[in-house]
Amino acid sequence: MFNLIVVLFCAFNSIVFAFVHSPSLNDVLFNGGYDFIDLTHSFDKSTIYWPTMKNFTFTEKFKEISEDGSWYAANNFAAGEHGGTHLDAPYHFNLNGIRVGAIPLDKLIVPLIVADISSKVNDDPNFVLQKHHLDNMLNNNFGKPFYIVFKFGWSKFFDDRDRYLGIQANGTFNFPGLSEEVAEWITSSYKNIVGIGVDTASVDPGSSIDFPVHKIASAAGLFNTENVKLDVTVPDYGCTALILPMKIASGTGAPLRLVAICPKQVPTRF
Ligand SMILES: *[C@@H]1O[C@H](CO)[C@@H](O)[C@H](O)[C@H]1NC(C)=O
Ligand SMILES: *[C@@H]1O[C@H](CO)[C@@H](O)[C@H](O)[C@H]1NC(C)=O
Ligand SMILES: [Zn+2]
Question: Which first-to-last residue range defines the signal peptide (predicted)?
């Protein structure tokens, strides 16, 4: 009798266990159902930096075989905050905004929405994104916080600095960007957006001299990510973004490793 009770108890226990056991994140991510997509340009001597910033410099410091035959290598690097694939902290354009090191992880690991407007841009450096270009999104009620990346189709020019920045004879820039109207929409109507991304050098159009999109996003506490590498296909929704800047405590910005984790079977809902 006693043995029977023990057996019943154990059986009951494992049933309860089966009910409460949910798969770990590892079980989910590594079951073969996900793609890991790198949205980051490499950092090297040709990485595009904002012209007032120090370019990426990489100095080989040690590269040698010791007397005992073992190998040792180590390098130095230096760079401005704003170049290559990078993040702008709210403090970049707002005195009261937080700096890179203070951005909480729950804003940096979030659902990703890719708004592919490249067919509307059609390689025109004068294109400025207006609300009417986003008609299909405007009335969507996205429930959860998310990060939105606008694909202008500009990553294919990244290897050609003059073309990418649209450098004019007088030294000014010309590449597509967001309008002030879209920045207002992002920050006022859809407060669930935690950050903005673009596959160009700036969220403001290249010709901008007063950077309203930067100012509006910063004032609303959003971060920007610029020079996102979008020359690969990324589902419009369903992916999770890992937006992980180098944790420069006082940074106004920082180099960023940006990754999308995307289910191979795109879900029917955001
Ligand atoms: C960075 O490199 C570019 C391309 O070579 C050059 O035009 C620019 O002047 C450099 N920037 C600085 C601050 O040295
Ligand atoms: C620089 O040249 C471009 C193209 O010609 C022009 O649109 C822009 O107004 C000029 N900017 C300045 C500051 O001269
Ligand atoms: Zn920046």
Answer: 1-18
